[in-house]
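Summarise what follows for lecture notes:
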Amino acid sequence: MNPRDKVQVTPEHSDSSPGGSVNAEWMAGRAPDPLLTTKLYRPPVTPDMEPRAELLKRLDRNTLRPLTLISAPAGYGKTTVASMWLEASAYPSVWLSLDEADKDLRLFTSYLVSGVQRVFPDADLKTRGLLQTTAMPSAPVVARYLLNDLDMIGKPFVLALDDLHRINEPLIFTLLGELLRHPSPVLHLLLITRRDPPLPIASLRAHGQVTEVRARDLRFTVQQTASLLSKILQRTVDEATAAEWTERTEGWVTALRLAALSLRNRDEDAALVDDIPGSSRYLNDYLFAEVLARLDPVNQRWLLASSLMDRLSASLSEAVCQSDGADEQDTMTGDSFLDWLQKQNLFLIPLDDQRQWFRYHHLFQDLLQKTLQERFSREDLAGLHSRAAAWFARNALWNDAIRHYVAAGETETAIQIVAQQRHHLINSENWFDLECWLAWFPDEVTANDPLLSITLAHLPVTRGRGQIELFVSRAADLIALLPNDTPVVREVRGELAYLNALIGLYMGDPSTVLAASAEALTLLPRQSQLFRSMTISFQSFGYQMIGEVEQGNAILEEAFKVPDLAASERGRLLYYRSFIYYMDGDLLGAQRSASESIHWTSNYGLVDTLNQARYVSGIAHYLSNELSMAESVLYAIVQEPALASPEYLSQAAIALAKISLAQGSSEKAEEIIASITAYLQEPGSMFALDALRAFRIEIALAKGDVDHARGLGAAIDIDMHRPIWFHYLLQLTPVKLLLAERNAEDAEQALSLLEQIDQQLLAMNRRIYRIDVLALKALAYQVQGNWQTAKRQLTAALDLAQAAGAVRNFVDLGQPMASLLQHLDREQQALRPAIAAFVSRLLAAFPTPVLASSTATPVPTAQQPPTLNATIPVGTEDLTQRECQVLEYLATDLTPNQIAEELCISISTLRTHTRNIYDKLSVHNRMEAAHRARELSVT
């Protein structure tokens, strides 16, 4: 069955021709297919069904167990028994008929949520939010959400999954296994399958947690066989005949029904068991052939042709099965065909309460399809598929239409549907359904069609997997062979330009962003709402990157004036504007736009954009030192981790960890990072995990544990070329580690790295990040004892920060930065009033202990000995500048801790320098070193 069809459709028969290409009128303005809600209807119990009183009583006695498993081969009446039980049960039930198309975890969960919502319409199901995320969470996470939702419902019910054997996706069984591992007291799981699922059935059996119904339990007794045959044959069947049939069929229900149908036209005096083969695997095929042979040719043809569809309606049956007039005896209509099927009792199962949609019993359909393949030519089968596809297209059931057109060999028509309808899915960010559509096409078709190739190129961007370059280059090569003035070529070129603008944005190339955005907006059609709004955002970003923020804002303002601008587009544009403000160093503007985006997105289920806007809002509040506001906004992201993309989740966790460090709780910071790291192991997002691992170095540095930080740094290979996008710029972590060593050589290496990063930031106008880079440059020059250069870098950082209102960029750098700011504060007369006031504000934000320790640490200047720029004394040429400075202090009566404090280095670093001095001067202790220092005139 199609995973995205309507329950009921109103056929539009303006064109009664059964085949042909898709009319564009059929496709104009038609929304994508919703979930096939007929799959959520329990098959009804009809009066002709044999009662199974003892079996139903047994099921009723065990409802407190978490699982009932009905497992038997095809045709044993599993679904019938399950439906009988649920109809008689006092508990409400959710029914889901499964098929091969439901193998995706997102789709499977969508059906579960929809089924539960139908039974409990007032339930606020948090699991629904998972379905709106770009990256579907892991199966255990989905299970936890479901279990929490069930606890909130609080009312016992049965969840029945029919035809579970059609599913082979391990993630779905992981989900079911989690539901059984932590069973909810309100959920009773009913699994109906031809074979046992990969679940811990043995363990559940050992603990008395499962009720099992097997083929032996479902077999008909002699009395039930007699009753069934009597009803179908409409005459009395004696016990001996019933016993013979029960033995031959081994109580197999479908075989008994087929037998009754095959014997229905025999004389009453004829023996009911003559000329019938004994029990064998060929019995079912024989009986089916008997039934089919007794039908007239028209009925046979309609029966076989209709088996091509997974579900039937009167209109669909007529469109596919009715002949073109060659057979004058064919006066069948869709309504009369369905009436005939029901009167003949030919294994037809209603799919809705209105009895407009039906399906065949799966075993009967398998037999019909087998015969169909044998009797119909390839051309005839293609014709049936074409008729079915045309009907589905007329009724906007696009998934089925595409599938049948491809099966008919009419791939161009299928591509036409994708071309006309894909914008509905793209504009609503429904990438999953679009991927399902593309999956119907053979690989050689997608590889040679530019529209399908460019559509595939978007999936790696949105779903986080695959190689975007492959599909982009393939689409570009294909359109190079086509005329430039065709709509398809213009659209593909527009989307290629959109993707190039996106790549330019992440790589920090404003010229590419602006050029590609302008091209995309010229080529993209108006119905491409998502790509156009994203491109407008990219263009606005491009202007910010070259320092023309006002022009970028003007572009966004024009976009906001578009009549009937969708809430999703407004929310997305507001998010991008907040990020533009943030990058440009306008934290107040970022807060305002992010808050507006949150307002628009929170009411429309735009989970990804909502969390992105929350992130910008939280970071802007954090850098403004509004910690409580930042914490509340960011916590909304991490408390529902499954609803956030891995990158934004990890960045929100890092920001919360920073807040904990600011509050003096390194333990809580470590707990936050460890928790989200453990969570992200399941989705496996390496980009997000790299950031979390790198930030552990910063936690160690904040605790003053340089040795541990150094060990963590050695174990992590930090990519210094990753895109500069998120607040936590992990390229700066190695710089901070180098500066923690407090020696000139490491400071020089830090300055080299900072200069490279600063050049990148200047090229893309990332003003907010330059505050951090300039502040770290000031610290590096402080380590080198170059106060004048440090002062220039610090003042430049303060200029940017004062305009932005950024506080934490400095406070998070701790005691060394406090010392620099205190020194600068003593020179207030040389500062502009606004900067002097801002320095005072910054110093007020530092914790008192940090300020106290900073006061005791003098800032070295070019005029203050000891200086790292001093000439190295003769005889100490092998010593570094820092080692000469340490040697000078060794000749004093200061303790090692005091020397380390004076030099702003750790005690372990002091020991390293001391050992190096001993080795180079061939001395063995501090006294000898002091004596040697006096000899060399170091002191």
Remarks:
- Confidence is low (pLDDT under 50) at residues 1-21, 24-32, 862-872.
- The longest helix spans residues 487-507.
- The CA atoms of residues 7 and 38 lie 5 Å apart.
